[in-house]
Amino acid sequence: MTIKPLIILPEPILRQVSTPIERVDAEILTLTDDMLETMYDAPGIGLAAVQIGVARRLLVVDVAREGEEKNPQVFINPEIVASSEERSVYEEGCLSIPEYYAEVERPAAVTVKHIGRDGKEHVVEADGLLATCLQHEIDHLNGVLFIDHISRLKREMVIKKFTKAAKAKPV
Predict the structure, then answer these.
(1) pLDDT tens for each residue of 17-32
(2) Is residue 6 part of a domain?
(3) Name one GO biological process term (predicted).
(4) pLDDT tens-place string over residues 99-124
(5) Positions at the binding site for Fe cation
(6) How many domains does the chain have?
(7) What residues contact residue 55 under an 8 Å CB cut-off, 6+ apart?
């Protein structure tokens, strides 16, 4: 397993819509292992493939709390097929927008259809932190960032800050 470098805002690939995965093969399984290793190292609770520069519809999550046993989950070609009317607000952060957090309102529960590591179709009904995490990561696959769910003024300030930092970084 290899820890991959994270793509940071304002890199344009973060706004790209990821392409579906045709089949689960050794290359995809290696990619999921690398993504899990990268996510745990960061540390984070979710990671979309596009965040390591691979614009494919793949994400990994693990919302186990500190002290609990790890519970890594892999979602290939995930699709939200149902969302609750009820809403919830969580303070979200993102490995691609380090050290910035904001409250985001999303559906409190979602049903997600996806392909697992076993190549079979699965359906997960999620609520709480897992529902928020899945929605956040699926947004990544569609070129959407969590800052797109906050006020335009706050979003523009964040983008400006990260654009300035990227320009200041030596090549």
Answers:
(1) 999 999 999 999 999 9
(2) no
(3) translation
(4) 999 999 999 999 999 999 999 999 99
(5) 94, 136, 140
(6) 1
(7) 13, 16, 17, 18, 19, 49
